[in-house]
Amino acid sequence: MTAIEYKGVCKTFRGADSYAVDHVTAAVEEGEFVTILGSSGCGKTTLLKMTNRLYEPDEGSIALFGKDIANEDPIALRRGIGYVIQQVGLFPHMTVEANIAVLPGLLGWDGARTRDRVTELLELVGLDPAQFRSRYPSQLSGGQQQRVGLARALAAGPRLMLLDEPFGAIDAITRTSLQNELLRIHKETGGTFLLVTHDINEAFKLGDRVMVMDRGMLLQFGTPREIISNPADGFVASLIASAREQEKFWEGVL
Fold this sequence. Notes:
It is a single chain. By secondary structure, this protein is α/β, with parallel strands linked by helices. 41% of the residues lie in helices and 24% in strands. The protein has helices at 44-51, 74-79, 96-100, 102-106, 111-124, 129-132, 142-153, 172-189, 200-206, 224-229, 234-253; strands spanning 2-11, 21-29, 33-37, 59-64, 67-68, 81-85, 160-164, 192-197, 209-214, 217-222. A hairpin with a 2-residue loop joins β9 and β10.
C-alpha cells in the first residue's frame, strides 16, 4: 500500500521569488524508510511539514494511506503521525514518563495502559525505565533526550513517523549509535519512516530509498545503489563525489 503520495506539490513563501517546493511528485510505500537529502534551503523540511499540515501546499495534493490530507482535521491528522525534530522539544517541567504520556493522555488512555506503554517504549529506545521514567529533561544528555523524544513520537503507535534532522545536534559517536537504534526500531515497528537530513552518509545508511532535493525540486528518488550507480544530474554526482572525497581522507590517514 502507498503510505504517502505527493502529486505536483508546490509551496512558496511570502516575499520569495522562487518555489520552496517545486512540483514534487513521488510515492512512499508502507513500511519503507525513506530519507530526504539536500542542503539547507532545498525544501526538504518544507515538504516534511506539509506532510502533517504544519504547512499547507499552494498547489498539488498529498495523500496518506489513500486519503487526501486536505480533507482531514489537521489536529486529528497530527495525533496519528509521529514527529521528531532536532531540538527535541521536551517539556522541561515534566518527567520523562509524563513527556512520553502526553499523546496517550490526549487520546484518553487509562493510567495502567499508559504506564505499560511508557515502560515498553523506554525499553525500545534503550533507556532503563527504572532509572529514567522519573527524571527530568535537564537531567539527561542530548542523546538521552533525543531517545525520549523518539519514544514520545512512538507513543500512540503511529503508522507514519516524520523525523526532521533528529540527530543534527548530537555528537558523532552518539549519532552513529542513534542511527543504529533507529534502524532497529524501524524494523521492529514496521512503520513508515520519512527522515530529513543534509548528511549524505546518514541518508544512504538509513534510507531504503533516498529523495535528493535541490532548489525545491526532487532531482532523484531511488535506492542508494541506484543513485550512486546512475546519478540523475551534476548536482547529485557532486554529492556522491563529496562523500567519496571524505572516504579518501580516511584511507589516507590509515
